[in-house]
Specification:
It is a single chain. The chain is of the alpha+beta class. About 40% of the residues lie in helices and about 25% in strands. A four-stranded mixed sheet has the order 2-1-4-3, with no helix packed on it. Strands 7-6-5-8 form a four-stranded antiparallel sheet. The longest helix has about 45 residues. The chain is rod-shaped.
């Protein structure tokens, strides 16, 4: 008998809790539907005024144009076709190079290709037909053997030393190579050649 009352009491408490939960859920759902209806009515009124579109489509992300600044690192890479070597130099953007788009950089450096462009790095590459500055060129000046170095742009050479060796006293094949511009890959190789001619 006691167990029957106890289980009946527990059942009533469970029903009361269930009723409270259902009532709370019903109230919550009713308020949500009323809020949605109110928002829908407000939306229709705003749409009628022509101020807002009927759908909330996500706005497209606006991508800002990439431009350079004074903190942009400019990388200049030259590839020398004659020797296959390359040289790379780095520096920050100058005042004239700051605030430029990729198209403006392309106009400024029309003989260069852009390998990379971002606000932090602009990497330019130029192919050069000549030799890099690591080489020496043996040539002729005023009838004597002269030593030249290629300029960084590979377009020209400059005189670094004129020797006392008269080109007329050298063999015909050596004279021909010197007149064509004999390219030497190292200072050691150059010194060995000069010693052999000077003796």
């Amino acid at each position: 008998m006691y167990m029957g009352r106890k289980s009946g009491f527990v059942g009533m408490v469970a029903l009361m809790i269930l009723g409270m939960v259902m009532g709370y859920s019903y109230t919550l759902l009713t308020e949500m539907f009323q809020d949605e209806e109110r928002i829908g009515n407000d939306k229709v009124q705003i749409n009628k005024a022509g101020s807002l579109s009927d759908s909330f489509e996500p706005l497209a992300a606006v991508e800002l144009p990439h431009i350079t600044s004074r903190e942009t690192t400019f990388i200049f890479e030259r590839v020398y076709n004659a020797c296959g070597h390359s040289s790379i130099t780095y520096r920050y953007a100058t005042a004239q190079e700051a605030g430029l788009s990729q198209e403006q950089v392309e106009e400024m450096y029309s003989s260069w290709d852009i390998k990379e462009f971002s606000p932090s790095i602009v990497w330019l590459c130029e192919k050069v037909d000549g030799y890099c500055t690591n080489h020496y060129i043996i040539g002729e000046k005023d009838g004597s053997v002269a030593l030249y170095r290629p300029r960084e742009d590979g377009q020209d050479v400059y005189l670094i030393y004129q020797t006392d060796i008269d080109i007329a006293f050298l063999g015909a094949d050596v004279q021909e190579r010197i007149r064509e511009g004999w390219v030497v890959d190292s200072l050691e190789q150059l010194e060995l050649l000069m010693e052999s001619w000077d003796s």
